[in-house]
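Justification of resources, computational component.

The compute hours requested in this renewal are based largely on the per-chain cost of generating structure records like the one below. Each record pairs the submitted sequence with a full structure-token output. That output is archived, and it is also reused by downstream analysis tasks.
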Amino acid sequence: MAKKPENLSFEESLEELENIVADLEQGEVTLDNALKQFERGIKLVRQSQSKLEQAQQKVSILLNEDDTDLSPFTVEGE
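The structure output for this chain reads:
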């Protein structure tokens, strides 16, 4: 049984979406199966989009945390 979209990592979701698209592009699936795959794909896309938005919020919070400007990283001895 396939994992629920919310239990997949972003990368796993993308991989499954690629597989769904490849299956549908071949055109050898039944209409019923195509609709099920399409529905699964929509759920995966929505969950992936949510994960991207969460990551974007975390990055934004981290960049604004201390309101300090970041300086370039330099290695001593170079």
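The CA atoms of residues 72 and 78 lie 14 Å apart. The longest helix spans residues 31-64.
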